[in-house]
Amino acid sequence: MNDIYQQPFVVHDASNIINETIESTLEHQLYQKTKVNLWTSNIVETIISALTKANKSFKYIASCVIMEKNGAGLHTATSCFWDNTNDKSFTIRWENTTMYVIVTVYGLSI
Amino acid sequence: MDIQHVYTKKRSEFGRQVIFTDRAVESIADIPPNPDLSREYISRNPVELAIQNVREFSEHWVNTVRFETENRGINHVEGGWPKDINPLEPDQTSRFRKKTEKEDGFTRSMLSLGNLVEHTIKQNNIVDIYENYFQNLEPDVVEEAPYAKTVNIYRDPHKTRRAANHISWYADGARKLAVSYCNLEFQSGTNDSFIDSYIWDTENPTKPDLHLKPISPLVCIEFNPKDTHQLVGGCYNGQVCIFDTRKGSTAVEQSLIENSHRDPAYKTVWLQSKSGTEFFSASTDGKILWWDTKKLSEPVETLILDIEKKGRLENALGAMSLEYESTIPTKFMVGTEQGRIISCNRKGKNDAEKIGNVFPGHWGPVYALQRHPNFLKNFLSVGDWTVRIWSEEMRDDCIMWTKPSVHALTDGQWSPTRSSIFFTTKMDGTLDVWDILFKQNEPTLSIQVVDEPLHCLRVEEPHGRLVACGSQNGTVTLVELSDNLCVQGKSEKALVNGMFDRETRRAKILEARGRARRDARGKSAHGEKTEKATTDGATLESELKEADPIEKAEKDFWKIVDEEKRKRDRKAALAGEKAAAEAGETTQAEEAAPATAETTE
Known about the structure:
- The complex is a heterodimer of chains A (110) and B (601).
- By secondary structure, chain A is of the alpha+beta class.
- Chain A has a single domain (10-109), classed as Ribosomal protein S3 C-terminal domain, CATH 3.30.1140.40.
- In chain A, 31% of the residues lie in helices and 35% in strands.
- In chain A, strands 1-4-3 form a 3-stranded antiparallel beta sheet, with helices on one face.
- Chain A starts with 10 loop residues before the first helix and ends with a strand.
- Chain B has a domain at 148-504: YVTN repeat-like/Quinoprotein amine dehydrogenase (Methylamine Dehydrogenase, Chain H), CATH 2.130.10.10.
- Chain B is α+β, with helices and mostly antiparallel strands and 601 residues long.
- Chains A and B meet through helix 2, strand 2, strand 3 and strand 4 of A and strand 1 and helix 1 of B.
- Chain A: One of its GO terms (cellular component) is cytoplasm.
- Chain A: GO terms for molecular function: dynein intermediate chain binding.
- Chain A: Belongs to the dynein light chain Tctex-type family.
């Protein structure tokens, strides 16, 4: 068992990346249904590219939910069956005046 | 998204058993509903949605940067020979050639190459790709809307703003344009302005072909039709000068300033002579001077435009435009600043005999004057806000004129190919094409060439397809016209001739009537010879009435209608008789009926 193949998923690096991505895409923007598609795909792609650049041996899954603030409620939860020592997941919740944004990233070691 | 991740794994690690454990549920988001927020939204009913089932286009325009070209020559030396062989030595080259011919593969490669060449040549020769189909058939006349498009724009490369006020085409084909530039504004005080004029090559709008450097700015410039290298230019200070394109930019000859005009020499025109060295110039100082290029120190002849024929310079009218037709070498016409048009004869012993008819002209300076190329008795003049067409026979009034336009007209010219077309330029930068056979109340085609006033125009002589217009900013635009504006129809000449004749006759009749009425009024007070006048008037009137086809047609029409009515009444009467009469009378009626039928038929 070589330690190189089993580096843990470093959480705070990832959180920085995710935060920066969301800020850059959605800073000062209002919810526009024509652009939402663009934003979600942009966020997810940017996160994955940034994470893979680190060249670590992980499988990544990124999901992004953008919800308009119009009074509805949203509840989500996850559950996983994996190698608890090497795999980690991470969620970031972000909001501005018109929308909620929830980004979840899973890193599964190869 | 193209991400690649390359990693290595030890073979022993493949297929290792995984150790998975369950991870507890983690709630990611728990956002309760918030009715306050929902109150920010209202339901929209109905929803309007515009749909259009067309492809979405977007428009872009690009103006490419002007590409500067320059012509250079290349010296090509023979090459392709191997290094040790000097291509200039014939024996070395022949030795090399003989050596290659003796090589093994030579005949084989020659044969195969020969086959290839033969095949291509045969292909070329099968079909004549330069054949003109249907050459002997005349093209169908397609009625399309006339159009004109700008071919080239020649901008003054110098920064100072000068108007392009005269253009002359190269006499031998449409290859070159000479344009004179001069700032004609009153007291514009341009000491340091550029006074050059240019000769442009029509293919090269970036750089003029030749700069002409006169002593004072040129107001007008003309190529010599006989010697295409010579140009005459009229200067702002009244001198005239001769340029030769072979001899460089400065004037070859210049007239002495004491013997030249005292005002700008507005027009210079070459004369038709055997030597091709004579020309004459006109200026607003009231003089017309004849010159010979061999001796420009003083004019050959002088004419003072005093219409009272007393030769007084103070009374003279200033000349703005000249008209000279090379087929009538002794007569010419002058358009004056005061608006009159004077027809002159060069062969007069003194000034009084030289000046002929004076036409009333325009309300302002006559900027252009030209005889019709096909009908020499009619000429057009451009001035104030109208274009007027005159006939030499009618001295008191023009025979045709255009509606006064909103903008002042600056120049006009007949089309050399089509008899019914003439061009005018206006102060709002439009070039108008008028077709008097098609529409007389407005131009057939009006093109906005530039946004500033256009000062001059010149049609390219033999073909009449290209028109060059010069504007206030010194920009010369070359416009190409569609075919239907330059190709003459079959009966067009006759129709235009007919139109001019009709209008001349009409003007004559009106004049005669007016004269007769005036005479009648004048002599009725004395009471003598009124009958003669009225009978004269009456005969004219009856002539007019007889000649009036509309009235005749009306009379005929009512005659026919009355006859039919009478026939109908007669038939009705006959029918009535038949009904009333008994059988005994039927034979009589039957006889009568065919008789009447015969008469009616």
